Amino acid sequence: MERQTIDALFDDFAEAVAEAIGAPPEIIHEATLSQGNFRPDIVMELEHEGRPLRLVVEAKPALFPRDAREAIWQLRNYLAHVGPAGGSVVPILMAETISPGARELLREERVGYFDSSGSLFIPAEGLYVLVDRPASKKQARSLTNLFVGRRAQVLHAVWLFGTDWFGVHQVAERAGVSPATASETLISIERREWVEVRGAGPSKERRLANPRGLLDAWSIHQMSAKPKAIRHFYVRSTTPPDLQRRIHHTCEKLKVPYELADITAGQIHTPYLSSVSQVFCRIPAGVGMQEFVGSIDARQVREGWNLGIHEVAASDQLRFRQRIDDLWVTDPLQTYLDLLQAGGRAKELAQHLRSERLGG
Question: Measured between alpha carbons, how far is 165 from 56 in angstroms, rounded to an integer?
Fold first, then answer.
């Protein structure tokens, strides 16, 4: 971290502590170094109800569960070698961004924290401070940038490996991304402790260890993200199943890739709703899409529609589709994520699909 950023965080931390406790902390300097020459960034002292309190603070750029575990060990090792301070001592970790998982871990371990949102936790003898504030827009972006673009494709590929071990090149090939993108994404999810690791170097392998944690975080992002636009059409068709088959045969004839999506896919994977009158699909934008619309005589409308089309940027975004009963369908994970953004009873179907096909 840049010194300027660290100083700004410390200033905000000192102000937050003073506001919460009613006493401004005083910065002190320590000459004693612990084993391994580690030294925290700053040590502060204050008095609360006549009792001295020392805050031993270490700053990090960002904290996810794995980083938090390592930093906790480092701080506790330091405190074990500097000896008693003559009062209550609280290790504190601060960062611009601290993930929800890291916050939970720090509270369980009774290690304090502070981040740029103003969230503050101080667990001391005779004093307990917890200020929990929502992430800023900048923090939210750093926490959720895994769930968009090519990184999301890597996460999807990781999910599909299930409990199998995989290497960087295997997941890169499955996701259709470069090994560098795959490696960067895998390092990020290691920090979140969603995967476990064995080996090192070129032989390093990983496997999904916390699918629920991954799915929970992805769900939160999906429900807060702006829904993708849907183009609405009316097609003369007797029933939704007839329209599904017509979509399939037309796309096969034109060699245009497609996948049935949203509620349509949810009903195929895990039937739940008694009746659905519309059909949803994904098709790459461009000439093929235009030819498809013309071939089925689809008329774009605002009301009374029976066909909803998500236009995707490229056919590569359909790489995880599945063939079910001679139809191409979004896989259960993509279906679940799409349903979280849909209206009506789609969220009920999403939860049903998750419990039946995604493991809770």
Answer: 40
Q: Is the pLDDT of residue 102 over 80?
A: yes
Q: Are 272 and 348 contacting, i.e. CB atoms less than 8 angstroms apart?
A: yes
**Phi, psi of 173, deg, nearest 5:** -65, -45
All structural domains of the chain, each given as residue ranges with its CATH number in brackets, are 3-135 (3.40.1350), 139-224 (1.10.10.10), 231-358 (3.30.460.40)
Q: pLDDT higher for 133 or 295?
A: 295
Q: What is the dihedral of CA 126, 87, 53, 101, to 10 degrees?
A: -70
Judge whether residue 85 has pLDDT over 90. no
- How far is CA 90 from each of CA 34, 75, 129, 265, rounded to the nearest angstrom? 16, 10, 12, 52
Q: What amino acid occupies position 175? A: A
The pTM for the full model equals 0.78
User: Is 44:25 a contact under the CB 8 Å cutoff?
Assistant: yes
Rounded Cα gap, residues 123 and 110, in angstroms: 6
CA 72-73-77 angle, to 5 degrees, is 120
- Residue 84, pLDDT > 90, answer no
